[in-house]
Amino acid sequence: MRETLKRGALVGLQTTWTLGKVIFPVTLLVTLLRHTPILDWFIKGITPFMGLLGLSGDAAIPLVIGNFLNLYAGIGAILTLDLTVKEVFILAVMLSFSHNMLIESTVAAKVGIKVWIIVVVRVGLALLSAFVINLVWNGGNELAKYGLIPQSEEAVTGWFVIILDGVQKAAIGILQLAAIVIPLMIAIQFLKELKWLDRFSSWMSPATKLLGMKENTSTTLAAGLLIGLAYGAGVMIQAVKEDNVSKKDLTLAFIFLVACHAVVEDTLIFIPLGIPVLPLLIIRLLTAIILTITVAVIWKRVEEHSRKEAFHGN
Q: According to DSSP H, which parts of the chain are helical?
């Protein structure tokens, strides 16, 4: 038992170091950007396009902040605005698909997925979902009534204080990462050595096959679904090494997870906005399933076509 604990802790520390080298500088950079005109330029740039998505110009603020930072920051920005129920729901769906892009996309690259695939899928899903909701939903024109209002952060002034604030937030991010990843890796090490993970993989086999993946992808899928892309990446990196997950299966898993990850936290977090969260969860889940199956089918046909051409070429 002691050896298992040691091996799990060691893997957890290695994973924390790998992801920390991404999370620390990105968190520091984004914190600094918040105190420059750059975010304002982005907001002004996309404001004219908001009408196509059924949103007012002010709605650009939570979109940009949520994508540069995280869901909490995006929701905090929504709570400061007078928006309709329809606008809030559209923003919630968009941000559930596309948020924390800098950190989560860079972490995905550590797993071996190309950043442009993650960005295109997430931004594409956010824009498409907003356009469709705006097109099919005629109601929700009353002003949204928000629930719990979080306390606003104190204003930070002076570059030394700003940099110190950025370093502090980045350090806290690493500690949060370690607090989640290390115990998780220890638990997974025990599950592996007790052969429970093999049993779990067999239970997940029908679902992974439906999505066009092999059953050894189940650990990767479960990690992303439960704890998200950033924190789940530690489990994914280890699963790729130890379970021999193929590049195709890993790509399909990430396509599913960019549409639907951290399903508990990322769903419950929208409750303060006063919108129905069950439709939000259903939209994410159905989108993830349909998108992944579609890509898997197309990928399979392309592979079969390539094999036929190679066979006839010989």
A: 2-33, 38-46, 60-68, 71-78, 85-97, 101-111, 115-136, 159-193, 196-210, 218-243, 247-259, 265-268, 277-313
Q: Which residues of 30-62 are buried (b: 16+ CB within 10 A; e: fewer)?
A: bbebbbeeebeebbeebbeebeebbbeebbbbb
Residue 291 above 90 pLDDT?
Answer: yes
Among 217, 256, 235, smallest CA distance to 18 is for 235
CB-based contact 128:92 (threshold 8 Å): no
Nearest Cα to Cα of residue 93 among 289, 230, 283: 283
H helices present in 137-217, as ranges? 159-193, 196-210
CB 87 within 8 A of CB 77: no
Give the pLDDT confidence of 141-200 residue by residue, as tens digits.
888 877 644 444 556 667 788 888 888 878 887 887 788 778 877 887 787 777 776 676
Of 129, 96, 141, nearest in space to 268 by CA:
96
Closest CA to 287 of 121, 158, 135: 121
Residue 180 to residue 126: CA distance in whole angstroms:
28
Q: Measuring CA to CA, how many Å separate 132 from each of 174, 200, 298, 313?
A: 38, 37, 24, 45
Nearest to 254 by CA among 239, 270, 268: 239
120-139: average pLDDT: 92
236 SS3 class: helix
Q: What is the DSSP letter of 84?
A: B
Amino acid at 95: L
Contact 173, 27 (CB under 8 A): yes
Residue with tokens 């330029």: 41
